[in-house]
Amino acid sequence: MSTLYVGGALFRAGVGSIPGWGVRVSGERIEAVLPDGVLLADRSPGDEVVDVRRGLISPGFIDAHLHPVIGGLDLQGCDLTPAASAEECLALVATYAAAHPEREWIIGAGWQVAWFPGGLPTAAMLDAVAPGRPVLLANADHHGRWASSAALRLAGVSAATPDPPGGRIERDAGGEPTGMLHEAAGDLVVDHCPEVTAEEVEAALLTGQRHALSYGITGWQDALVGRSGITPDNLGAYLSTRAAGTLKARVRLALWWQRDRGLEQIEEHVAHRALAAEAGLDASSVKLMVDGVAENFTAAISRPYLDRCGHATDNDGHSFISAEMLRQAVAALDAEGFQCHFHALGDRAVTESLDAVEHALERNGVRSNRHHLAHLQMVQVRDVPRFARLGAAANVQPLWAQAEEQMIEHTLPYLDGSLRERQYPFGDLLAAGPVLAAGSDWPVSSVDPLAGIQVAVTRQDVADPRDPLLPEQALPLERAWTAYTSGSAWVNHLDHETGALVPGHLADLAILDGDPFAGDPHDIAGHRVIRTVIGGETVYQA
Ligand SMILES: [Zn+2]
User: What is the pTM of this model?
Assistant: First the structure.
């Protein structure tokens, strides 16, 4: 007995959409990919026919950089993503505080830097809507936290508290903390929040999975697994959901490289990989957070950041892992058979990551670990061809490649002109020929692959299309789609099994309500996924 998906179009890499074609699924695999007429003529009695009603049958999307547990926790806490302004955000906090008098702490996430003057909300704003309550709210990119006065007091953060390494406490003229804590400074308060229990982490993973499945995502690479100091340890949640059969998505886990430690931690990564393997999970990746983000001037760049007047400062960002340690770590991890998953936003971080991959190649010879660099906000022209030469994939988060407020107000004015011209140079990368993979970095930004793909193609804000950001760097629709399917499958070492609709592959499908290849590129994100299938099993239906 098989299931036939017919009545629409089918996505194929290198082609685009093929109207009038469908697939026959038997058990967990794709058995045939043929014109609808042939599939229907060959049908056996008892076969189920699913009419996709002029929709698109796509391989399931694979998100090459996702944080489902963090996203799930955000959805379970004070979720600020529905807000569109400071007022709406504060109203959500007030509503949440009133609805949860039993919660000692109000923990949440999802506010946008652009809603507040200078990107800096204050403790006083929270004190007004949740009087006397400790509140801690991560911004959408999770690189900054906003604390109420009670939270600062409970954590002992005062004018006398020095900035911690890798972090900065925003202060007023008198040196008093104003409520905004950048990067590692947020940990000063996080350390005092109630511990997240293992049950809550497991629930968050399943909440995150449910969210991802509803957008047609059938697999991902978790870009932060293990103990990070940033989030609760989530490896246990993968092991338990896998054992319980509730983990449906095909996942690969990137173990967190602790940047305050050295090569001695590799032994622990090896042990965790073995533990995961026993459960049938692949944890052969290690995530190396090489730098920060441009909005708070921690992305590692080749030219110093500018001040408000356009003058060069003495800050060129942070290499969270020194270039020398990175070389040693990548060579050692590569020798151990680990894939390195780099967070590299600034151009200097990209150069240092590629240098480390090159060093590993020289030392260990060609291994097929499929290292990949994520984010790639700025890439020097001379580094573009190195990806393909070194066999490293470019893992892009296309939703960021748009001229929205955060980019226009909080990023571009503070960058040297030569770097402004190098924002998310996906077109250059595509032309240079490395594997392109794609992901969302959810909950940093929307998990929706269709929104990401629309921006990759238009380089414009989905909600408010205006001047595109470097439109010459746009990707053709078919290439963006391929990055989000077979490109990410390659990065996850699953390209022989999933990511394309070919006979013999696992039946991992995302079925859309229409064919984005047949319409205006500005309407791509207007489409919805109506059914998600993993291994032949329908795991989501609209
Ligand atoms: Zn991330």
Answer: 0.92
- Say if residues 348 and 302 touch (Cβ distance below 8 Å): yes
How many contiguous H segments (helices) and E segments (strands) does the chain have?
18, 24
As a whole number of angstroms, the distance between CA 430 and CA 437 comes to 11
Pairing of strands 250-256, 217-225: parallel
Neighbours of ion ligand 1 (CB under 5 A): 223, 441
Whole-number percent of the chain with pLDDT over 90:
89
Q: Which residues pair with 394 in a beta bridge?
A: 373, 436
CA–centroid distance, residue 472 to ligand 1 (Å) = 26
- Ligand 1 centre to CA of 446 (Å) is 12
Q: DSSP E strands: which ranges in 197-301? A: 217-225, 250-256, 282-289
Strands 48-51 and 56-59: unpaired
Residue partners of 256: CB distance under 8 A and separation at least 6: 224, 225, 226, 227, 228, 286, 287
Q: What is the pLDDT of residue 230?
A: 63
Cα–Cα distance between 313 and 318 in angstroms, integer? Answer: 14
